[in-house]
């Protein structure tokens, strides 16, 4: 099974600053085309938040129009730029989001990997939070299927990244409490996040936590002692998480979005000569 992950598309409306600076809608459309063209094609796509930039209904309709071109099912979670009501209005018709006005948390049961989606959104804040209610819900969902390999989705990553500004002003509250729950449930194969606009990987509470690049702009690699935050127009990318099963586990790959020269060097059991 192949699970594609995209994140931080920050779609806005024509003429808005982020569209002029980073062409976020155009980049999301390129990401959709890229995923549709992969061979083999992913079975599902996960969007780990910051779907739009201002949480506006018009932005969500625009983003949904772009994402509707995906040839496979899509599951979304909110990021700090998202609005729960707007996201629910745009994507609630797909049936997996809760219909009440609470947190946008859900479970997908009918895949080889069980998906458990967490809501880390704090309205009008760049920081994330896992409060007691959200964490209790998670513990209950994990306890309900202890032998089923599981993937957690959450926008804010559960670790300090080394990007000082992000860590100090846009981090996640409740990391220690989350770690205690994950340690009790070893079926958690991976924690998938976005938010940091870069691919990162870290051991966390007996499993692996990773982040996904943005479909548009990336954050600069401003590691200590730097205290600035920069945006770099590095190549956008998606993550492809390959569930191999039968004890082989889950392998995560970076899939750079765009067209690049390809040379086939081995096929049908034979090495092929390299061509100009």
How widely separated are the two ends? 35 Å
Give me the Rg, rounded.
Answer: 19 Å
CATH-level-2 architecture: 4-Layer Sandwich
Largest sheet: 6 strands, mixed
The name of the CATH superfamily reads: Metallo-dependent phosphatases
The helix/strand series, from N terminus to C terminus, equals: EHHEHEHEEEHEHEHEEEEEEEEE
Describe the protein's architecture and organization.
There is one protein chain. The protein has helices spanning 17-22, 24-37, 57-67, 84-91, 132-143, 164-169, 175-184, and strands at residues 2-6, 44-47, 74-76, 106-108, 114-117, 128-129, 150-153, 172-173, 188-193, 200-204, 207-211, 218-219, 231-232, 237-243, 250-256, 266-267, 270-271. It has 276 residues and is an alpha/beta fold. The protein has a single domain (2-261), classed as Purple Acid Phosphatase, chain A, domain 2. The longest helix is centred in the first third of the chain and has 14 residues, at 24-37. The radius of gyration is 19 Å and the shape is globular. The model has no long low-confidence stretch (mean pLDDT 97).
Which key features would you list for this structure?
6-stranded mixed β-sheet; single chain; alpha/beta; Purple Acid Phosphatase, chain A, domain 2; 17 strands; 5-stranded mixed β-sheet; 7 helices; 276 residues
SSE diagram, text form:
Layout: E1 2-6, H1 17-22, H2 24-37, E2 44-47, H3 57-67, E3 74-76, H4 84-91, E4 106-108, E5 114-117, E6 128-129, H5 132-143, E7 150-153, H6 164-169, E8 172-173, H7 175-184, E9 188-193, E10 200-204, E11 207-211, E12 218-219, E13 231-232, E14 237-243, E15 250-256, E16 266-267, E17 270-271
